Amino acid sequence: MDSVRVYVPLFILLALLACPAEKALIQEVAAKNEAASEGAPLPTSKEDWPWWRGPNSDNTSAGGQVPTVWSETENVLWKVNVPGHGHGSPTLLGNQIFLATADEETEVQLLISYERESGKKLWEKEIHRGQLEQRHKKNSHASSTPASDGEKVFVAFLNNDAIWVTAVNLQGEIVWQQNAGAFDSEHGYAASPVLYKSLVIVSGDNPGGGYMTAMDRQTGNIVWHTRRPASPSYGTPVLAHVAGRAQLLHSGCKMTSSYDPATGELLWSLEGPAQLMANTMAFGGNFVFSSGGYPEKELLCIRADGSGDIVWRTGRDVTYVPSPLFHQGRLYVVNDGGIATLFNAHSGDVIWRERLGGAFSASPTLVGDLLYVPDEEGTTFVLKASDHFEVVARNKLGDGGFASPVICGGRLYLRTLHHLYAIGNHAS
């Protein structure tokens, strides 16, 4: 298709006009023509997991099967202590793992690199000291997952009333640091950086005036800065190729929206599903799936061509923090209260719905025909990804956590409250 029709309801325009300008550190920046150049090629190896939700941004892995059974004494290749506290998932590139963390006692926010094969710490870089903001009890001061373009690692932290994006080279040296915008929230920050061509993009939805900011990967210079409503929300936008074009999809602030990732221009937007969102949208074919949140609770299937068509919707067993997962015409949802549901993605029909029990914040990860999803107490459920519900295994580790599992290169990497695990067959 040649274009996407812009659909902007009146309530969004009013919300944008209500944004208090005095709270913003950065005024809206309109992108110039061809704002996003191709830049250096982004990682494409199925052996890597270069950013939040993996190389395809959908939490599916092509990295080979991993064990379905493990414990503290079985199929753990290595286990390392992680200083501080954080909920971001590990990022993997080549033989390096990158992890964001924060030590609340010393008020230091860090980026750490580990050797992928052994778990040995390669370096630890202090990004910020002091000025930690308040947070929700289920959040952390390091909930963002780093992103890597193969040359640098980009990490986003809330510090001193602003979102700061820092580029660090693979040797642990800071290349640049940029203030992406003011941020005012009693619950903290959780969104992860998104890479598109020459850009690194972050979201900053907050009551003082929301925005998305795109920076040049090489220099940190701001390329575009697009305002969003003055409303709190905590999800990460996702880059998807749907309805014939690249779209930057984002939900929250009582709307689901699509932006041109090269310029920040709004392509389309519609109302719903909720004011507060804390997950990442799923996508597939010509459809996108937006689920949340608080105080409203609804899951929407939306046609991604800008027509404003909602194909189906449901208010039952909706997920707020864990992200939904689309695969082969099916939508898998494990919600915060431990209800697992499989939808026909095109019709919204429920194929199965079962109770796992427990509380969940992590999102399911798919490899082959298996879904891996840990609860907050440290039990990882392995589910069959099929039209017949089956729990293949339940695996308990010593401490719980909130981070989503990463699967690549025949291994599962799991961050818990105090440790990072590599799980796999010893022959691998």
What does this protein look like?
It is a single chain. This protein is an all-beta fold and 428 residues long. It has one domain: 7 Propeller (Methylamine Dehydrogenase, Chain H). Helices cover 2% and strands 43% of the residues. The protein is built from 1 helix and 33 strands. A 5-stranded mixed sheet has the order 1-27-28-29-30, with no helix packed on it. A hairpin with a 2-residue loop joins strand 11 and strand 12. The N and C termini lie far apart (45 Å). Residues 1-25 have low confidence and may be disordered.
Fold topology:
Blueprint: H1 10-17, E1 60-61, E2 76-81, E3 91-93, E4 96-103, E5 108-115, E6 121-129, E7 147-148, E8 152-159, E9 162-169, E10 174-182, E11 194-196, E12 199-203, E13 210-216, E14 222-228, E15 238-242, E16 245-252, E17 255-259, E18 266-271, E19 282-284, E20 287-292, E21 298-303, E22 310-314, E23 325-327, E24 330-334, E25 339-344, E26 350-355, E27 365-367, E28 370-374, E29 379-384, E30 391-396, E31 406-408, E32 411-415, E33 419-423
Parallel strand pairs: 1-27
Antiparallel strand pairs: 2-33, 3-4, 4-5, 5-6, 7-8, 8-9, 9-10, 11-12, 12-13, 13-14, 15-16, 16-17, 17-18, 19-20, 20-21, 21-22, 23-24, 24-25, 25-26, 27-28, 28-29, 29-30, 31-32, 32-33
